[in-house]
Design brief:
The structure holds two protein chains of two kinds. By secondary structure, chain A is an all-alpha fold. Chain A folds into two domains: 284 residues, no CATH class; 262 residues, no CATH class. In chain A, strands 1-2 form a two-stranded antiparallel sheet. In chain A, a hairpin with a 4-residue loop joins strand 1 and strand 2. In chain A, helix 9 packs antiparallel against helix 11 and helix 25 runs antiparallel to helix 26. About 3% of the residues of chain A have low confidence. By secondary structure, chain B is of the alpha/beta class. Chain B is elongated, with a radius of gyration of 24 Å. Classes of the chains: A mainly alpha, B alpha/beta. Chains A and B meet through helix 17, helix 18 and helix 22 of A and helix 2 and helix 3 of B.
Chain lengths: 593, 308
């Protein structure tokens, strides 16, 4: 009895949890430049946002008495921006930081090594999680003085600051555990990041959405009233909780907010995190023991396949395919479309298609498929999905070869750099077809149904063509610059977000505050090159069966002029893309080991 | 066939290759030896056009590697110290892919791939996926890949590392076969005794500098390593040691359980001296056998073992 109490005490003792793994992680992270860059970017972004928020609030003219009377409101608004920024930014950083936590140990074969020491899998999981969380808490602590200073303005109760911090903390713990969980299965950080994001979307967006729709369709109102059902569905949702928590700050007597309890949400997320930690601990132990005993295969099925390998060699002798010229294109086209985990990919495709069919059915049931706006929403959604995957897949071309160490061998052949580049382009296009097919299917089907003007098919084709070409060129450039796929993918993401989201915002903010002459015109022209605006304009003009006026940010034009503008954008982006491709070609034989 | 002139490669503060001058004749097997971080792999990467030298020149088959990358790649086959694999390709497809990459005519590819598979004894594995092969098989596949375009020069970076004794012997035999085929081979390895058996010339490198280049036999006088012989007598070993120790030509006498190891002073004529001395003393001589200089000895003597 005394022994078991001692063991329990030992396991939950902070000294035991903060053991060698925790210590090692802190040491390693202190040597990584990227962590300092991350902290700097966090502070810089927070300060910039704070400056603009401050400027936008105090910009209103008035006498000193009026300004002083507004101080409480200013305090509330600034604190709201800070806590929302913390809430969003720390989640992104958490996903990135924990995306390689276990996979690094598996990939470097140190997990099996750890199993030969007294350290157990729980200590490994907790050591990894706590060390990263400590760094994230540090980020939250950095902004505490700001919160404290702004609170002096008045109007912000302590309860709001505490509840926001608790919600942020439990959300990042949950998301961090999710990222750590996925890192057991994949050594590619970007795959883990995507899996975590998709899971979060499914849990907190798709499932509640389907639940609400089913509640309405199946008339569950008789069993459970909508006013009870919806808060119950969203009680575990930190985003909705955070929204109502902020809402409570501005309208303390809000009736909707009264149904949401932040501490309940914190409790739910904490329990979910504990469950995930327990599952991760079991899985880490399994993987570690397999590695320690020299078993490389995770599943029994693969192990069996290896056992029967000799039979397989003979059986598959007929399956050898003839290499066709050019060889790089042949190799790229030979790569399985569904990757190695075919069944998993099939399940994902099935679920996605089911969800899509469900949404279309819902739209048809509500008779909104004739509504022009709904098609803009569909097109924008498909465009975002397509662009998201294009950014990822284009940046993996060279780095995956570098990680597989086949890149120097390929460069040792007499293949021309252009041949390699072209082969990669074809391979990327082929892998992107299933992603973009959703967009084209929607536009073509509804143009056949005369809901969308057929001209939009051509215009959407032009748009997709330049997005893919441009992102391929930037992706291949970043892929040639970096050794790791994850770095290339993240940089390609940041680059795309900078030119298509942050830069337009910055121009408009600068125009709003500094009133620089010509800035507005420049900003409008700049926004006219934005792919998402292109989609909005195309759909806005083409969903009334007869092509109407195209309302761009800086001008209005007819179909011919607008198509000409789109072609000009295609030429411009392709030209810039080719510069990136040329730089990538120049860098092909640099930094290859 | 392979020549480097004042070849230098600098990475920041580190000079990985420092004013390296090498010359390897056509048809030779050149052993490139050095401790870890000595600059062997960097030199090889420059030679195979995967790295640009900071200073100096590297010439292969009369072509400057920095200026004629494409032409140089046609005459060399490079096997790095790692195996770059394409996960989903089968052995035959992998080799055919590289045959196509080297612009070999489509009609000839199949026979060439079959040929290199036979040479490397991999026919039974041609339908296996590359990543399912054992380490030894992958090394052989690596060799098959470098032979696919029939290069004149083979540059092999530690081809036997991590292999079991049987696989090492097989690789050694394969290299001998390639030498018979007239290939010029530059090979680096840490298993020095293996290089000793197959190399015509060796180069010992440390801190990026070539500390020795020449034949194994030439190392001895250059380093002052004494010629050794092993003597076995039927009985009275003590008397034999006493007699031999007294000879002025002898540098050192060491006793072992079954034999006496004798090293001579440099430049001394040893022909018949030991036999005459022992026979004149009525001792029954069973064997007098010259001891070969071991490459490991030369390596240890030439290098300080300081890692960069």
């Amino acid at each position: 009895m005394t022994m078991s109490i001692k063991n329990i005490w030992r396991i939950f003792s902070p000294f035991w949890l903060l053991g060698p793994i925790f210590d090692k992680e802190l040491r390693v992270s202190s040597r990584r430049k990227r962590n300092y860059v991350l902290r700097f970017m966090y502070i810089a972004l927070l300060s910039t946002i704070l400056f603009f928020v401050w400027a936008s609030i105090v910009h209103i003219s008035g006498n000193n008495l009026f300004q002083a009377s507004r101080m409480a409101l200013i305090g509330q608004e600034i604190i709201m921006f800070i806590v929302w920024f913390q809430f969003c930014a720390t989640q992104i950083i958490t996903i990135i930081m924990l995306s390689t936590s276990i996979s690094d140990e598996i990939y470097n074969k140190t997990l099996g090594l750890l199993m030969s020491t007294p350290i157990n899998s729980f200590q490994i999981v907790m050591g990894k999680l706590l060390s990263k969380l400590l760094q994230l808490i540090l980020l939250l602590v950095i902004s505490l003085p700001l919160l404290a200073v702004v609170r002096i303005f008045g109007g912000v109760p302590w309860n709001f600051i505490i509840s926001s911090l608790c919600l942020t903390l439990t959300t990042i713990i949950f998301i961090g555990t999710l990222s750590l969980f996925f890192s057991i299965f994949s050594h590619k950080a970007y795959v883990v990041i995507i899996e975590t994001i998709i899971t979060v979307i499914v849990i907190f967006v798709v499932v509640p959405f389907i639940s609400i729709v089913l509640h309405e369709i199946l008339d569950w109102d008789r069993i459970i009233h909508e006013r009870t059902f919806i808060p119950a569905i969203f009680q575990a949702n930190p985003y909705v909780q955070f929204f109502y928590n902020t809402d409570r700050l501005f309208s303390p007597n809000s009736r909707d907010a009264a149904h949401f309890f932040w501490y309940l949400n914190c409790g739910i997320l904490a329990v979910a995190s504990i469950v995930l930690i327990a599952i991760s601990t079991i899985l880490v132990r399994k993987v570690a023991l397999r590695q320690a005993t020299g078993q490389i295969y995770l599943s029994r099925k693969k192990k069996k396949r290896k056992k029967d390998s000799n039979v397989e060699y003979q059986e598959s002798s007929t399956k050898i395919r003839k290499v066709k010229d050019p060889p790089v294109i042949w190799k790229e086209l030979r790569t399985p479309m569904l990757g190695k985990h075919k069944k998993f990919a099939m399940v994902c495709i099935f679920l996605t298609l089911s969800l899509l069919i469900f949404i279309y059915w819902l739209c048809a049931r509500e008779r909104v498929l004739d509504d022009p706006d709904i098609h803009s929403v569909f097109v924008i959604a498909f465009l975002i999905i397509g662009t998201f995957f294009t950014i990822i897949l284009t940046a993996t071309g060279i780095t995956t070869e570098k990680e597989a160490r086949s890149w120097p061998i390929l460069l040792m052949t007499t293949l021309d750099d252009r041949q390699i580049l072209f082969g990669k382009y074809i391979g990327t296009i082929r892998r992107l077809i299933p992603v973009w097919i959703l967009l084209f299917a929607h536009v073509i089907i509804f143009s056949l149904d005369v809901v969308i003007n057929p001209l939009s098919v051509i215009q959407i084709t032009i748009l997709v063509l330049w997005i893919v070409t441009f992102l391929f060129c930037t992706g291949v450039y970043f892929s040639s610059c970096f050794k790791h796929t994850t770095t290339a993918v993240i940089v390609n993401f940041v680059f795309a977000a900078t030119i298509w989201i942050f830069a337009p915002l910055l121009f408009f903010i600068l125009d709003g505050f500094l009133h620089i002459s010509g800035m507005q015109g420049f900003a409008e022209y700049y926004v006219d090159t934005n792919p998402f605006l292109h989609a909005v304009v195309i759909m806005g003009a083409n969903t009334n069966t007869s092509a109407s006026s195209y309302n761009w940010a800086s001008f209005s034009a007819n179909a011919f002029m607008s198509t000409a503008w789109m072609l000009a954008c295609l030429a411009g982006y392709t030209f810039i893309g080719l510069i990136f491709a040329w730089r990538a070609k120049c860098r092909f034989r640099k930094n290859i080991f | 066939m392979i020549e480097t002139k004042h070849l230098t490669k600098v990475f920041g503060n580190l000079t990985a290759v420092d004013d390296l001058n090498l010359f390897i004749k056509q048809g030779d097997i050149f052993g490139f030896i050095g401790p870890n971080g000595a600059g062997k792999t960097t030199t090889m990467r420059i030679l195979v056009t995967l790295m640009e030298p900071t200073r100096g020149h590297a010439i292969i088959d009369g072509l400057d590697v920095s200026r004629n990358g494409q032409k140089v790649r046609r005459v060399i086959g490079y096997m790095p110290d790692f195996m770059g694999v394409y996960d989903d390709l089968k052995v035959f497809e992998y080799l055919e892919f590289f045959a196509a990459a080297f612009s070999i005519e489509r009609s000839k590819r199949k026979s060439i791939v079959e040929g290199v598979l036979e040479l490397t004894d991999l026919q039974s594995k041609k339908a296996a996926t590359v990543d399912s092969l054992s380490r030894g098989m992958q090394q052989r596949l690596g060799l098959a890949r470098v032979l696919i375009h029939d290069p004149k020069v083979l540059i092999l970076d530690e081809p036997a590392s991590g292999l079991d004794p049987r696989a090492r012997i097989e690789i050694r035999e394969l290299l001998r076969e390639l030498k018979r085929m007239g290939k010029t081979i530059m090979i680096s390895s840490h298993i020095l005794s293996e290089l000793e058996e197959i190399c015509d010339h060796v180069g010992i490198i440390e801190h990026g500098q070539l500390v020795y280049s020449g034949t194994i036999e030439e190392i001895r006088p250059r380093l002052g390593i004494h010629t050794k012989v092993r003597v076995q007598v039927a009985d009275n070993q003590e008397k034999a040691i006493e007699l031999l120790s007294a000879l002025p030509q002898i540098h050192q006498v060491q006793t072992n359980k079954n034999y006496i190891s004798i090293s001579f002073k440099e430049g001394e004529n040893i022909d018949g001296l030991i036999a005459r001395t022992l026979v004149n003393a009525n001792l029954d001589v069973i064997a007098i056998q010259p001891e070969q200089i071991k490459l490991d000895d030369a390596f240890l003597q030439l290098t300080k073992g300081i890692v960069h």
